Amino acid sequence: MESNRYTTLFHLRCAARLLERQCRLMRRVEIAARAISFLSGTAAFAAIVGGRPVLTLLIGLLLACAQAVEFVLRPGERAARYARCARLYERPASRRGELSDAELAQSLTDAREQDDSDEIESLRRAAWNDTAAEVGAEKRLTLTRWERLVSALA
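^ that's the sequence the OP posted. Answer follows.
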């Protein structure tokens, strides 16, 4: 029974950790896209005033790409959704002393049913490693280069 409770708590914490990482990544994407948009807009204006059509075109393309990333990904909305879904998993984990094993397992099932977020697969193993480190487990998953890069960004 204790291992079931331990496993349920691990799953709750791991899901919350994954959503926290995804939220952080989307906030950083949003900040980067807005910074690039701002700097590109300023540089495009300076290039227009300076009479440099090729530079204006290149900077305009950079601005369009940054805006497209922000429009397609909608990182601000996704970050808010990830934060909301993370709370679905954090609430029962924070009440673990008050809940029985069955109630804890049911709260995990309920959180999974209410979780409407998409998952960034490259962060799943990093979140598992984070959770394993938190509980003091020796076993860690080996991350690929891509997973290490995305993990560093998040």
